[in-house]
Amino acid sequence: GWTFVEVADVGFDGDDNVYVFCRGTHPVMIFDREGRFLDAWGQMGAPYFTFPHGLSVGIDGFVYTADSRDHTVRKWTKDGKHVLTLGTPHQNAPLSTGQPFNRPSHATVASNGVIYVSDGHGNARIHCFSPEGALKFSWGSRGHGPGEFDTVHSVFIDHDDGDTLYAADRFNDRVQFFRPDGTYL
Q1: DSSP string spanning the chain?
Q2: pTM over the 0.85 mark
Q3: How do residues 104-121 score in pLDDT, each as one tens digit?
């Protein structure tokens, strides 16, 4: 009897279970491949979510969520146990400085556990973090040329192609491709 409220993103795990990330009473709802309800976790408000935006289930089996209004990315177990927070809740980096985070939109993880975050609403950057959460490097700037973004909205990794990173560049109406070190392809 629950309803979806403003579904922000959908992800899936290695067992083809579907994770729906929405802005309602039950922010993370999990279904099997036939659409049967399996589980739900999280809530709106501390310590969970302010404004759900992006969700992915990593190759490592963890769930990564981006909250664009509390300026964090969080790592969870599949059953909703908190593992790691990137950023400081409700403390944004100054607008367009390139520092993490100002309204992050999505996160994904490479084969080696490195975490990539699109920080697209208040910045035009992709940030790369170690598996433990230390910032390694960032790239991108506002613009329309190669490697520049006008709202980098999502990041995805093709694990079968050497961890090629795909960046959805929303208002430039394109997807850009990068190597894991940020080199434009």
Answers
A1: -----S--EEEE-TT--EEEE-SSSSSEEEE-TT--EEEEE--BBTTTBSSEEEEEE-TTS-EEEEETTTTEEEEE-TTS-EEEEESBTTBPPPTTS--S-SS--EEEE-TTS-EEEEE-SS--EEEEE-TTS-EEEEE--BSSSTT-BS-EEEEEEEGGGTTEEEEEEGGGTEEEEE-TT--B-
A2: yes
A3: 999 999 999 999 999 989
